Here is the input.
Amino acid sequence: MYDLLAGLSVIEASSFVASPTAGLYCAQMGAEVIRVDQIGGGPDFRRWPVTEANDSLYWENLNRAKKSVALDLGRPEGRELLQALVRATGQFVTNFPVGGFLSHDALAEGRPDLITVRVMGWADGSPALDYTVNNSVGYPMLTGSGPEPVNHVLPAWDLLTGAYAAFALLAAIQRRGTTGEGGEVRIPLSDVAIGTVANLGGVAEVLYAGANRPRLGNAVYGLFGRDFVTRDGQRTMIVVVTPRQWANLIAALGLGAAVVAVETARGVSFATDDGLRFTHRDALYPLFEAAIAVRDHADLAAAFDAGGIVHSPYRTMHDAVQDPALVADNPIFGQTHNPSGFAYPAAGAFATLPQLDRRPPAPAPRNGAHSEEILSDRLSLSGTELARLIDAGIVGVAKTGDRSK
Amino acid sequence: MYDLLAGLSVIEASSFVASPTAGLYCAQMGAEVIRVDQIGGGPDFRRWPVTEANDSLYWENLNRAKKSVALDLGRPEGRELLQALVRATGQFVTNFPVGGFLSHDALAEGRPDLITVRVMGWADGSPALDYTVNNSVGYPMLTGSGPEPVNHVLPAWDLLTGAYAAFALLAAIQRRGTTGEGGEVRIPLSDVAIGTVANLGGVAEVLYAGANRPRLGNAVYGLFGRDFVTRDGQRTMIVVVTPRQWANLIAALGLGAAVVAVETARGVSFATDDGLRFTHRDALYPLFEAAIAVRDHADLAAAFDAGGIVHSPYRTMHDAVQDPALVADNPIFGQTHNPSGFAYPAAGAFATLPQLDRRPPAPAPRNGAHSEEILSDRLSLSGTELARLIDAGIVGVAKTGDRSK
Here is the structure.
């Protein structure tokens, strides 16, 4: 937690990964992010992984450091309260549909400088999710060694869209500071996906080649990079991006003469050309496989580290979480009370600002924990009016039996 | 291209994906992003995919809408010019090492309000790349149907880090506007990766379970989502996230009675519980496989669309790029002149702002195309001095024979 965005308040009406990620990143940088949900939780409130008591370990991590207002969004009075909160705040992040009661035009009535950042599925408004956008742009057909497509497990499009939405929110605020104008920023998952294909050269590549890139298994396209297995059975990823790393890798493996022999036979030099190391991988891979298969991982890792070679062993997520450098001793992690009652290391902002003190991560709120505070402060609702709304089931508050604080 | 960040100027000294992505997103939102490279191009200048003339289709897409200053960064005078440009500008994005001539402390001498956003590999400064961070946090061991780990092809950690860096840059600028203070923002790929594992509930999950999640092939964890194959051989991804989608999917496939039979046999109701649909996938998947295997894709797609069901066919990247909705008719795309001379649709900002006119995408610069303009304007170098620096090989300018403008 840092305070870079102190003074910024954002209303978030969202679910799943992309839109909550935008709010999370802002909250971890010190913005006040008020997530407004259906009383009892939105569609992602029980998303797996869950505890035995059905508390979502997913929800309570994607919604850290936020406040929670719970409303009955199925009734007009609840919807009007959310609209009023958005208007009273001026910044809104959502993945609700373009039309309907959370349309930008409806919300901007009486608040012309409102900024709405809206995560969408397809750009035309039809529904899509990370896993349906991903296969529609072609990545599963390039993943693995074939012939079956392989889906990613990491919801990369959701995460990238969320980060981009946080960036776009601040960009729109910057413009408003200059022009006084608000507006809506629409970010479809589908445009993030196909736009990224383009940014990485993929659109140009397939049109230039008139064909798809071949499937490469665990090899990296266009340079020397692949997984290899050591004598003691450790699979390790090695990637070379500089001439110095290439020279040091060859030296560490004692492959100087063997690589020169390939260069002579093929009439090329691998010293400075990533592409040639890839083109001639049929000759190079067997040399490296053999040289690595007769060395133990610890021995190789020390030699690679000394040579500035980029490498890392494959491990499971459970093993990764036990790595002190990644989690226990990593200053981005800290302990919080969690709504689930389960204690574990929680992550804060990815960024580290050496000049500033990092505050520990904050917990996710219980559903409705801040309903009274926010509706009272922001909409000036009286205690009597709040009591009526709570009694009528329009406003929800966290129950006293709920865990966490 | 939008002008949300008009008036912001950023110096970028970077390579590969993450740091250039941060600059790209800023440039596409109207910032002036000046990429400073070694004369003749940095280590990513020939990164694949390339044309037959060895022009990088990757580089010319990740560096659109930027300006290019070329310097000999191997010589003190070239390094001092880059330092002076950073100081004269006040905002700097880089993936150069923490120490050395581009350390924040060195750059901030005489420019205390400087903001440096630095993308790193490992948090301790040792080198890492997307593909070595990925296997170190466990995703390849969860991807595919096993037993071998499967690397992702999309450099998801690079992209997420780049987007987060763009966000963090604007957040730091927001703070400087309030406090007057600059500072360094360090964003290690490794912290983005393990922090994301945490944000998605993964750290809590493996510690709660004391074990790794099973490998699920193309199924989505914790809900009903998987690939199925139609009668005409089209593999299609289907994901259900709402009770309405579930009811409509069952109706579209005529599976009402069969699903009720499973519910009765297992003593559960799938109507509103994602988790139960996942737990009992052994009983559900065969029903859906059989029902989908006797229908053609076009027929099913129409029924799914009518029911608001989230689905999409698998296709190759080459096929995706031919989809008019994704590329040819998509307003985020446009044509530019490219340094490679090859013409193809280029992407602009992922976001769409309905109230504003979108300007077409801009091309990447030739190496050194803006050296004279920037060094003259920003550092007030005279024509005589510039000529001396060019003659001495300290400053590079785009050659007249270079393609594009």
